[in-house]
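Lecture notes, unit on protein representations.

Consider one protein chain, 149 amino acids long.
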Amino acid sequence: MSQHTAGPTSRARARAIVTVTALLALSSTACTEEDRAKVGDAVSSATAAAASRMAEITDGVNADADVKAGPVRTEGDRTVADVTATNPGDGNADYTVMVNFRDDGGGLLDSVVVNIDGVAPGASKKATARSNRSLSGATKAEIGQALRH
């Protein structure tokens, strides 16, 4: 049985460029220099942590088409969104998904990783993505990367 290795691809490099661009755009919209630094540090740390968790998956294949993010809602002081994985394969699959929370201008606010384990063939299963910190304003969730393994 062969294993698939998720290595750096042009798509992954493009995502990294988009993330850095979003970080720069986000930090330029904060009120003061100190605010920009705090926001930039928080987003940068969250994005780095999420990317690191995704890189730990060595036998994953791209599953962006299998995964959808639902609308956001607030639970306590966090922004959350349901993430649904639908397994098109013929065996059980686990999913590791990076979810990006963005403002209404497209600026990156936060990134988190969720796992959805044991999705049966032809079935769907949900998990909840929860922001690392309190987010304000209009926010949407999008799939940054999804791996099936």
